[in-house]
Design brief:
Helices cover about 10% and strands about 30% of the residues. By secondary structure, it is mainly beta. Helix 1 runs antiparallel to helix 3.
């Protein structure tokens, strides 16, 4: 979180390195000269920022890459003029890939004074927030690890590993990756078998939530970095 005054100027920071020792420049876009951002009281809330690193090679060419981070600007010292934004309603539903509602699921609303929200029996959430601010909604659920798991799942995973019948549905591949590494392998079978036999009470992460509009294009989504939250800017 960054405190906001009447005007806040952000300079890009040098925290990266090149293994060959090439000179690096840092910027907020693909333009290496874009090294300055100015934020004011209008910037309060959650903002997405691109952080670019450009390496200057000996032959005069450059190569660059970037990551995206979020900065939460807050008026901790109350220096910004008070404004009252109209309230807007945010609502949605959380369901399984087969459209079964998920009740009692916790949704954390970052960028707001609201506490955690909970989905109802139909998997629906609804709450009011101020307009003209950015919010991040992050769903989470703990418990019920053994719910929906059976010996048939173990058979399907074994067939996938042996190449007898590959799993192709991206959600099935995510569910089969019980140990949360980058692939489905024999090491995923043991924790699931323990759950079924009552020898284990929970997985490290039993629920994975994927934004509905996220397109899992790769052969195995376990090798992808799937967004964990949804960013909303009600305006």
């Amino acid at each position: 979180m960054i405190q906001v005054g009447p005007k806040l100027v952000e300079h890009c920071c040098a925290k990266s390195y090149h293994p060959c020792g090439y000179d690096l420049t840092y910027s907020f876009s693909s333009d290496p000269d874009d090294t300055l951002r100015t934020y004011t009281c209008d910037s309060i809330g959650l903002r997405s920022v691109q952080m670019w690193v450009t390496a200057h090679l000996p032959d005069g060419t450059t190569t660059s890459d970037y990551c995206v981070t979020q900065i939460d600007f807050q008026d901790n010292n109350n220096v910004c003029p008070e404004t009252t934004n109209p309230l807007v309603n945010i609502s949605g539903s959380i369901v399984t890939p087969t459209e079964i509602p998920i009740p009692n699921l916790t949704i954390t609303v970052q960028g707001s004074e609201l506490g955690p929200q909970t989905t109802d029996n139909d998997g629906i959430f609804s709450f009011s927030v101020e307009e003209n601010r950015n919010y991040e909604l992050t769903p989470s659920k703990d418990g019920d690890d053994v719910d929906g798991i059976s010996t048939l799942d173990l058979v399907m995973i074994q067939k996938h590993i042996l190449g007898l019948k590959k799993l192709t549905d991206p959600y099935e591949l995510l569910a089969a990756n019980a140990n949360l590494d980058t692939k489905v392998s024999a090491s995923d079978i043991l924790p699931l078998r323990k759950l079924i036999l009552g020898q284990g009470s929970e997985l490290d992460k039993s629920w994975i939530f994927v934004p509905k509009d996220y397109d899992m294009e790769g052969e195995d989504p376990n090798a992808e970095t799937i967004p964990t939250g949804s960013y909303i800017s009600p305006r």
